[in-house]
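ARCHIVE CARD
Drawer: 12
Card no.: 0347
Subject: one protein chain, sequence and derived structure
Cross-reference: see card 0346
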Amino acid sequence: MVNITTTRSEYPRPQFQRADWINLNGTWEFAFDDKRVGDQEKWHLDQQAAFDQKIQVPFTFQSELSGIGDTGFHDLVWYRKSIQIPSDWQNKRTILHFGAVDYTATVWVNGKWAAFHEGGHTPFQADITELLEEEHNQIILRVEDFSQDVTLPRGKQYWKEDSASIFYTRTTGIWQTVWLEAVDPAHISKAKFTADIDRNEVRVRLFYSPSTRQKGMRTRLTISFEGELVAQDEFVVTHHEHTRSIGLHDFNDHELGRWWSPEKPHLYDIRLELIEQDNVVDAVESYFGMRKISIENGKLHLNNRPYFLRLVLDQGYFPDGILTAPSDEAFIQDIELTQAMGFNGVRKHQKMEDPRFLYWCDRKGLLVWGEAANAYNYSEEYVRRFTQEWQEVIERDYNHPSIVVWVPMNESWGIPNVKNDQRQQQHGLALYHLTKSLDDTRPVIYNDGWEMMDTDLVAIHDYAWQEEVLNERYASIEKAVHSLPGNREIFVGGATYQGQPILITEFGGIAYKKSEWEGWGYSGADNDEDYLQRLAAVIRPLHRSPIVQGFCYTQLTDVEQEINGLVTYDRKPKVPLEDIRRIVMNQS
């Protein structure tokens, strides 16, 4: 297995990388505020005595890697960090970035308010230039969580003291990298890449800072493939946004092209430069993949060819870091284990994952279904919170070629009465159409599992473990769309099947090697032979089915008390990986 370290020193935003940055991970001062006195006592003005603990960022205090390891309820916490700004940043803007903080975060720099953000999975930033002092500078962060609020978008975090059933340890506070970045007042603020393999073009949308001096400034785009110059474009900046379509003169798909797929994860490198006279005032390194995901005549296609999805459910939890992977090596390990077992993708379940994971999926060729961390119950406040966070994650992850499907909702979480409640039905429809309005290049699922309305894919969860039951249920479209897995209807609100591709997106869940735990409808195995037989019995019918176009097996790893993974929580295979691979790929 891979040797895992805990540095977390990797560049945190690999899709948009600059040279001048400082990693602020490591030791921060920390305090619980269980008595909720921090605001009254003005801890943001640096009440030194209040910060009586140390924490290792970016790990939450519940995790062992944080150095604290306290899983009790502490919904209000504070952080403090002294920083130094390099002298050569004096003529630049200093941007403070947080990869993700669970759940609300208020930031002060030198006692002055800098930012507020709500949402536990998405990034935020603040231009702190005007708040800085010449020598000593200090960041103070107030984080508030709502551990027992079941309308909070939380994913698998449990709202009770101890983990149970399919719910796991809570996280509160910083759980992704904190960092500083230096930029010129005139800079490129965002880039969006949209591949068009039918025209052999990439559409590049560039957005510029409000301070960009328009007169005489130019942007230069340089695209290369494996070090070879492919295209270059240069233009005068006249507006805050520009769009360029660049032909790549690629080959076609007869095994000679440079299209991205799990089998051949080709990536183009792109350099973006903002130039004033002859000086490069901003330079960004990025990449993109030329690939297309589409539905044609009821068939799911990748790069204009039918493509069968073999996914595995990936919860993205780690024994010592909970939501935070201890290192890039941990992400790579999970991806390589997934591929070794014959899967070509993952459904990243109830977690908006760290961009470093998506980066490695782009590089190594692993498809990803981008899924939200849902709430459990419905409320108007939930709608506001969730809608904002979902928009932010689509914005963050749009450029990743590995992401091929958006999953805003799962198993009616957040909309438990969607069968009969028209408000909840409309919320699901709003999310579906909102997602399509932000990204028209990827399919969107209304409600993964069941109780769907408008949806691009019919995604069914079915934990039946008898082979004959699955053979019969997925022998025809009529039987599949009128089945009641989990005693739930596939469609609600008057919606009916409209010819969409059918996939089984949760199934299996075979518990082993603690087969006495058979929760949530899962089955259990007694030994290696029994385990492989049970695995084959649930996968074989989906390969045989004339209607099923892909599946997602539950699940990649054990997580805490849920022991139905193909590998253990510490990533040790339960049976030989090659035996699993033969079954997953229908080679036995």
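Annotation on reverse: The mean pLDDT is 94. The first helix runs from residue 328 to 340.
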